[in-house]
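@channel anyone free to eyeball this complex?
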Amino acid sequence: MGMIGGSLDAFIGAVHRRGSQLDGEIELVCGAFSSSAEKSRETGAALYLDPSRVYGSYKEMILKEKELPEGERMDFVSIVTPNHLHFPAAKFALENGFHVVCDKPATLNLAEAKELKKIIDSTGLIFALTHNYTGYPMIKEAKHLVDSGELGEIRKIIVEYPQGWLIDLVEATGQKQAAWRTDPARCGAAGAIGDIGTHAENLAEYITGLEIDELCADLTIFVEGRQLDDDGNILIHYSNGARGVLHCSQICNGEENDLNIRVYGSKAGIVWHQMDPNTLIIKSRDGGSRTIRTNVGSLSAQAQAHTRQPAGHPEGYVETFANIYRNFAFALRARWEGKTPDPLYDFPGIDEGIKGMAFIENVVKSSRDNKNKWTKFEI
Amino acid sequence: MGMIGGSLDAFIGAVHRRGSQLDGEIELVCGAFSSSAEKSRETGAALYLDPSRVYGSYKEMILKEKELPEGERMDFVSIVTPNHLHFPAAKFALENGFHVVCDKPATLNLAEAKELKKIIDSTGLIFALTHNYTGYPMIKEAKHLVDSGELGEIRKIIVEYPQGWLIDLVEATGQKQAAWRTDPARCGAAGAIGDIGTHAENLAEYITGLEIDELCADLTIFVEGRQLDDDGNILIHYSNGARGVLHCSQICNGEENDLNIRVYGSKAGIVWHQMDPNTLIIKSRDGGSRTIRTNVGSLSAQAQAHTRQPAGHPEGYVETFANIYRNFAFALRARWEGKTPDPLYDFPGIDEGIKGMAFIENVVKSSRDNKNKWTKFEI
Amino acid sequence: MGMIGGSLDAFIGAVHRRGSQLDGEIELVCGAFSSSAEKSRETGAALYLDPSRVYGSYKEMILKEKELPEGERMDFVSIVTPNHLHFPAAKFALENGFHVVCDKPATLNLAEAKELKKIIDSTGLIFALTHNYTGYPMIKEAKHLVDSGELGEIRKIIVEYPQGWLIDLVEATGQKQAAWRTDPARCGAAGAIGDIGTHAENLAEYITGLEIDELCADLTIFVEGRQLDDDGNILIHYSNGARGVLHCSQICNGEENDLNIRVYGSKAGIVWHQMDPNTLIIKSRDGGSRTIRTNVGSLSAQAQAHTRQPAGHPEGYVETFANIYRNFAFALRARWEGKTPDPLYDFPGIDEGIKGMAFIENVVKSSRDNKNKWTKFEI
Amino acid sequence: MGMIGGSLDAFIGAVHRRGSQLDGEIELVCGAFSSSAEKSRETGAALYLDPSRVYGSYKEMILKEKELPEGERMDFVSIVTPNHLHFPAAKFALENGFHVVCDKPATLNLAEAKELKKIIDSTGLIFALTHNYTGYPMIKEAKHLVDSGELGEIRKIIVEYPQGWLIDLVEATGQKQAAWRTDPARCGAAGAIGDIGTHAENLAEYITGLEIDELCADLTIFVEGRQLDDDGNILIHYSNGARGVLHCSQICNGEENDLNIRVYGSKAGIVWHQMDPNTLIIKSRDGGSRTIRTNVGSLSAQAQAHTRQPAGHPEGYVETFANIYRNFAFALRARWEGKTPDPLYDFPGIDEGIKGMAFIENVVKSSRDNKNKWTKFEI
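replying in thread with the prediction:
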């Protein structure tokens, strides 16, 4: 694996490195960690990389690695830059024959995402998008419960993602994470909606399989001087008639990373909290409440395939990335061995990326429209 | 106290009786418990009332009691009927000189509520509305925290009230509670919104003091054959610029009575769950999280004045009614003694009733309007 | 009902009053609230009692009330004094023909408790002991689960009761509750063990039906100047071979009233926390975890008979007293009507009182013995 | 790193591999994964190791690696075998110049542990023991709170470790984990006490710094046919006068891995649950309750140094091993660079190992003694 972005002062780069190497299936062999060659070198050194494979730009990395003999050169790139670089880096990698793992959201805008899909389709290479929260065993179980009909017809989805780290103008203090996430040029058309709202939307669709028919959004910028939304609230009509409420925020003072989902069907409802990720509750009016826990009792093959520890030994955030990377590695290996990848080891790809970008654009459009109530969801 | 409604097979009548007599300040002396004289008699007997003071109708009760000598006759009526009888019963009681405690929502519609206010004002009598959830000590503390500025400027309110008891057509099975609550003639223009949405709205306004400027509502009837909404989701703009999300439902399968509120300000946020009512959490990005508990450490006078037990001895639903009844009794006593009632012992009245009815009408109006996004809140 | 003890500055008197009158089955008609006639009068006045039935001593009350015509005089006494007065007051009441409800522990020592049983047996009157925590619906359900074999053979019981209110010499500050509870003359041979350890022991025995065979106790006085234990830890061998750990404390800084029990059997285990009393968890290695909630789904008749509210409307401490008083009233009424009381409406009596006193004496004996490991439990 | 034990069907080997490679500081280069050469080969292949460095025995591995040139050979061994092999493997590694990371408990018995200390001292090499639970950031914070006096004088410790996976004779079903853990020859003198009781004891001592003065233990074998305790309950006197209760079990039906600790001091108490590891509660009677969370607000340098993710991104079990391995790697690197290791990056060593083995032996001794109450803790 070669990494694009993710120098030492970044956040998500280290997460991808830990996630990718947790299972010993993937080795980081090279990187272009920063637009600053100096920073890239420092990062490569700290990671004990061969200095000759620490590059000054992703283009250099891709071109040089391409020249290395097979078996020696990197097998794929991992893109962990700010959003605006996702598309050009992914495009260049794919067009030079490298598979891609990319942080979310897929691209800077919907047009790029559609274009990226074309490139992926034409090259036939593998593309994974790290919508990591769907990697939790209990989310696999939740999807399984919906798929197997245990919830009946889905009627209501409440998905929320309150955070509080942007309650003031952090981006003006030199905090790098805040700086690019609040900058339209690097982040795209939305702030909180793009950064975390897309996770919420992806989670709801992953579990239920429902698609948005129309939505009504209310985005706000609370912190003076900020250019992108730091709060968003959305009413949703799903295509099957289910109703949804999606709200996310980065100004919910004191909230950490409180992604939660509740799905209610005619037969039962489920509740899951990301901050207590190994617990899933299923309940119904007449049947009471059952607590499903990672690796306790009899679970679906899907949940088991994404579990590493015995019951009660907490698995967390890093394992969600590890699950995507490991499944991506399995898919790669299957390809090399001429086999069909096992659908048990799923991971998000460009279709989820396109939906995420469409979600951002539809939400922004709806929010800007203060007259019409419902915005038809268009891709 | 004389009770109107609340026969043995009702739910809320018994709650009012228990709440009113918990502190020994109020005694039930008479009642017109049902439109069936037979049922009323049975209820009176079960409550050990003097049979001569168990009446066949509220009019009879009010007129007969009025004739009794002062000190012997009831001091006030408690109205616990379905909604459509609130107004005529309250009007008749007030016009005959009796103070009133009334279950919420205040009346069948906004016009009645406004009319009722006029009658209250002209008679000068005391009217209490049992929006009981504001009677919890931790809600008093929450209001105190907001009032004293500990949250800073309020930016976001998330208030939710999912229940699951109406996931199917319970009203067709002869269940009395479901029957009148889903019948427009007895319940009013809204179902879930009227029954529980008004509690959510009242709770948010009580704690924050904010008023709704405009809203965008999406009400749904999920259960076939039902006439009133069993699910409602609302986006709110408060007058100070704060954003709100209010959702309530009676088809959230497996949910019991899950009234929850989160209020986020520039300085801190608070979280409260009705099903764990003696706990209030206050948190902020930099200050971390503090758990405030009923009767632990140093609390506001408001919280203390509504607490009966030492720390860790759970107080619950019945105490919220008791707090309203006791405070109402204190106001009555103050009046008799020519004193000004102590504002520490507050309770909701007709103004909250008007707001609740206006909330219902504005929400229904907004929901029916599928074109315009925002409905200006009008009273 | 006539009350002995429970003046305005007491704690448990008000709890008994609220509990007894919650359901409208019992009316407070007279009282001897304090050894100070002045205090007794003040209390009676605050409770709106007829001044002629507010007495200066319990003996006066019992003798005067006895002279009143049947139907007018009190039916029973409620004893809510410090422990040392339980026995003489109960004895005098019983010997003059009055039934008794008494706060726990039953008496000052085991000998008194045994003597009291003889008096109860010879008079044939009804005696209730307010071990209130067994009045929670979820405890009724827990007992039902054990009785019906859902846990299999019981192997281990962990019951704990940490409090923190006596972390310093509160009794020296004039705090009345602390003063008598730490005074051997009024409280008996044990402090924390008598006050709360007996609740823990009673709860374990009520749920499981197991009896203590032998125990090994370690009591400590942590606060200098205190005369009775403020901390106790006990290993228990139950008669069926089950192992127990019982610990209680009043110096667990920051703990409120944290009575908890876990019972593990060969088939399943249960967990209950008093501070979240409407939740009971049943779990097993292979079956996972089920959350049982007051009035949700299908529960035992025992649990239902002690529930007042719909699901999700918290019931708490006052209802546990109300359940004992109501059941006592039912037993009284059955007696008057010549019927057999319904065993569904159970309440603790003198047998539980004797066991509690024996528990105190055996624990104190074991703790004082620093040589022998096991103390055979003797009654 | 070379691994001893940890073939594919083992549990803890994979944990050590994941923990050691999470941060990219340590690389697995060789292994003797099983006493079966076949199994060892299979494991090595699955881990993509150079087949020439997959050995048939730990002796072979140590001798062969020793012959490799510096920089090429492994730097240390990681011992993840059943207990009885810890000592011989560690001894052989140390005597041949390799540093050691070893799973707990340190050895098969106390004598071996003492002997091991001598070898470590004489070779001057580094030895780490994976008492992993002390690697959680919130445990670092807890220790910091005690050390900095925020709890005052420690009075009471309740530490518990209930599990339920051995409720029946799992060891007879061919389950490898159960088989060696219940076999005295491979596991040592104690079952549950050795496997998990030592973790509980280590956790209590790590946080508080207190030492056991005397104890009173009650071990039981509940499952017929089992040779070692599956349940243990212990009263403890700490050297400063604090009281302790330690209980652990593997027959608590339905419990997963429920290691919990509560420490109460004169100024405050703390509560921590391993299954919710990123939360630490500190509370006091007068100050109320504060929830400390990983990476929220201002924490100690110790907690921060063991944290990888932003607030609300759950860290779990694998990170506790990673913290020990990373700190061990830092110590190794410091040694190579001639520097003093930074005490911030601490890890358990042979002293903790000796205490753990002494704990086992003293507890077993006390439990076998049914006459004398207190067993003086001897090392």
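from a first look: The mean pLDDT of chain D is 97.
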